Amino acid sequence: MLGAAMSFEPPNAPPWLISGFVFLPMLVMVLAQWGLSLGARRAGAPRWLHGLCAAGLVVAMVFSLTVAARGSLTQFDRVPPPFLPLTFGCIVVWVLTATSRLSSGLQQLPLAALVGFQSFRLPLELMMHAAAEAGVMPPQMSYSGYNFDIVSGAGAALLAVLLALNKAPRWLLLGWNALSTALLAAIVVIAVLSAPPFLAFGREQANTWVAHAPFVWLPTVLVPAAISGHVLLWRRLLQRENSSSHGQPPSARGEPRGGSEAPGKAATPAAPIDSRA
Q1: Which residue blocks in the chain are alpha helix, DSSP H?
Q2: Which residue, of 183, 187, 270, 272, has the greatest Cβ tally within 10 A?
Q3: Residue 239, CA atoms < 13 Å, CB-side half-sphere
Q4: How far apart are alpha carbons 128 and 139 in whole angstroms?
Q5: What is the residue range of 193's domain?
Q6: From the centroid of its chain, how far is CA 46?
Q7: How far apart (Å, rounded) are the C-alpha atoms in residues 114 and 230?
Q8: DSSP of 11-55, one letter per residue?
Q9: Are 25 and 214 contacting, i.e. CB atoms less than 8 angstroms apart?
Q10: What are the angstrom distances between the C-alpha of 117 and each of 19, 112, 149, 263?
Q11: Could you give the dihedral angle defined by the CA atoms of residues 67, 199, 142 and 229, in that order, rounded to the nearest 10 degrees?
Q12: How far, in Å, CA of 243 to CA of 90, rounded?
């Protein structure tokens, strides 16, 4: 009886949308692997660790697509549905990679690169809106509903340019990172509450499309990539704060100058963040 109640039709998506959800995750994976390679060299990490982290991301990506293609994630009568713990596991793999020994090297990448990486969320949100318009995805997960993460993607693209030109003040970077983290957390909560067994928005607006290939790469590749990107950026920003509090000049570590000016001199505005490593 429960199994019948939890039976959902697979998404009927147009070919171009399917292609988009294949190409974008693969592009993000290529960029992530490139970043891992650069980070491993800068951190002086052993090859086995770099290989392990790189292989872990690829294995998680291939495994999620394989089980989705086999229909193993559509057992919505199970509690929790299989795609929810799979998503959690993939997030763990990405975050562990971002906080591994490679993290020190990854944090040395230019700020413009760390922020610009998140700009993939702009085309992603456009595709998600198209999916909602086509009836593939529930509307509450697009910007026509309660998902405003498109602001994060567009902001990342603009902020990356400012960082590359050394014209981004620190408050702007902190504000964007905080807002984007909050928007990402909000859509993750909405997605989980929309999925079985919660169905907070009703059965007709159920989030089950991500249990099918290739859309499974949204929660198992794209969301973990965005989360790990914020983890890296927060660690870098907080590390700079700790360095400043221990007396190291912020400008020596590529951060805006701050603090008090010499007596009798007017305070100067904070310098833009140096986006170079």
Answers
A1: 2-5, 15-43, 47-69, 83-98, 103-106, 111-116, 121-133, 150-164, 170-194, 217, 223-245
A2: 187
A3: 12
A4: 9
A5: 13-238
A6: 26
A7: 9
A8: P---HHHHHHHHHHHHHHHHHHHHHHHHHHHHHT--HHHHHHHHH
A9: yes
A10: 21, 8, 14, 42
A11: -60
A12: 32
Decide if 173 is inside a domain.
yes
Cα distance between residue 165 and residue 128, in whole Å: 31
User: What's the token pair of residue 251?
Assistant: 């400008």
Task: Give the pLDDT band of residue 79 (cuts 50, 70, 90).
Answer: confident
94-133 pLDDT, tens digit per residue, is 999 999 999 999 999 999 999 999 999 999 999 999 999 9
Asked whether residue 248 is domain-assigned, the answer is: no
Q: Is 48 domain-assigned?
A: yes
d(CA 35, CA 167): 24
d(CA 220, CA 68): 11
Q: What is the pLDDT of residue 149?
A: 98
> What CA–CA distance (Å, rounded) separates 160 from 158?
5
Cα distance between residue 138 and residue 191, in whole Å: 9
The reply to whether 81 falls in a domain is yes
pTM greater than 0.70: yes
Burial of 263 from C-beta contacts in 10 A (0-12 / 13-18 / 19+): exposed
Residue 186 CA to residue 165 CA, distance in Å, equals 31
* pLDDT computed for residue 11 by the predictor: 85
User: Looking at the 3D structure of the chain, how many domains does it have?
Assistant: 1
* Cβ atoms of residues 90 and 60 within 8 Å: yes
Give the pLDDT of residue 273.
63
